[in-house]
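Repro:
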Amino acid sequence: MIRSTMFALLIGAVTAWLPSEIQAAGGPVLVFGGNRGTGLEAVKAIKADGGEAVVFVRPTSDAAELKALGVATVAGDALNPADVKRAFEVREFAAVVSSLGGRRGEPRPDYEGTKNIADAAKAAGVTRIVIVTAIGTGDSRPAVSAETMKVLGPVYAEKVKGEDYVKASGLTYTIIRPGGLTNEPATGNGLLTEDKTVGGDITRADLGRLVADVIDDPATFNKVFSAVDRNKLTAGQMVPRQGMAPRTP
């Protein structure tokens, strides 16, 4: 009994000594882009795991589904640094997730929004960040076709800037780059890979599950992954399906 107690105390002491970047997040998560698409699916997965999420939404956004889920929201514009800073002040968060995307004709938040989130996280003492970008960004460029790059090149350029800012921020990051996103039901076949040459589709539900899983997984810290359905992998250049370009989160 004495030996087992001493062992437990020793393990506790070692855990307390470990740097924060290799410990689990273990607390509420602030989610940007969580009222729809991938972000909403990540919120659902966090809740399914018994966790808690608070979602940052624009004042004009439809938050009905979040309300039905019993998820708290904080209103603001991700392109406004003051709004983002205030969001981090409503709770003591363990991590932040961003799946910010843009609608056609609106300002892209891929860099400015990501920068605001990273800056506010650091100011609030939140060290863990997960961001969702897209296959075709950075060194995953070989995975998309010239046709796709022609259409989405400017978007990828903004996402690269956002990724690079997070990497240089000093935060413990995980970057997830999904392929083409679909609204089909979850398959359970979502895959994270460090192979930057692969492409393929993935459902938003499966991607949301992957996002939730990496939040407190030390094996994913300070790494960049491509996310695809393991049964829909493509090698080399990913080409859009007929009539559809790969969608960003």
